[in-house]
Design brief:
- The chain has one helix and twelve strands; from the N terminus they run ββββββββββββα.
- It is mainly beta.
- About 5% of the residues lie in helices and about 40% in strands.
- The structure holds dTDP-4-keto-6-deoxyglucose.
- The site of dTDP-4-keto-6-deoxyglucose has 10 residues, from strand 4, strand 5 and strand 6.
- DTDP-4-keto-6-deoxyglucose binds next to strand 4, strand 5 and strand 6.
Length: about 150
């Protein structure tokens, strides 16, 4: 799948990733409005969304897996966290502090999240339903998979 991304200044060097910028209506009086639209700013049809919340500084890590087919976009909608990406050859860490900039988690991309702030909440949109068989949760197996 070719991802048509609206790239911002942030350079993502790992494969099957990129930056998604949400359309934003700034309103100093009433609060801001940011919009996620499938096939527009998010470059795939969304079948599922989930929220990872009640995070805190005490929690060390989440993720630590890759997906065989699933494509997702991750938004840190409150607080901050660090997203670590690894395509088997290149590694990159992104500090996520802006809820209007998401990161694509494409297929075959090992990812983990660390350094959560106490108010951190993460929203993920995905192009398919949950399937445990799509996960690679063992890093050595991932490296073999990434070489293929
Ligand atoms: C991902 C990262 C960014 C379900 O039953 N349905 C779901 O839609 C999801 C997402 C998870 N689950 C179950 C599977 C596990 O038994 O919830 C449990 C916790 O999931 P997991 O340990 O995989 O959570 P994270 O935060 O490590 O990973 C999640 C997503 O699972 C994963 O796809 O890319 O967020």
């Amino acid at each position: 799948m070719t991802l048509k991304l609206i790239l911002t200044g942030m350079k993502i060097k790992v494969k099957n990733s990129g930056v998604v910028k949400l359309q934003l209506y700034k309103d100093a009086k009433r609060g801001n409005l940011a919009i996620i639209e499938a096939m527009k700013n998010v470059p795939f049809a969304i079948k599922r969304a989930y929220l990872i919340h009640k995070l805190s500084k005490k929690i060390k890590v989440r993720g630590e897996h890759a997906h065989k087919k699933l494509t997702q976009a991750m938004f840190c909608v409150s607080g901050s966290c660090t997203l670590h990406l690894d395509d088997g050859q290149n590694r990159q860490s992104v500090r996520m502090t802006d809820s209007t900039h998401g990161i694509i988690l494409g297929r075959g991309l090992w990812h983990s999240m660390t350094d959560f702030s106490d108010d951190c909440a993460i929203l993920i949109v995905a192009d398919d339903y949950y399937k445990e068989s799509d996960y690679i949760r063992d890093y050595q197996k991932f490296l073999k998979y990434a070489k293929r």
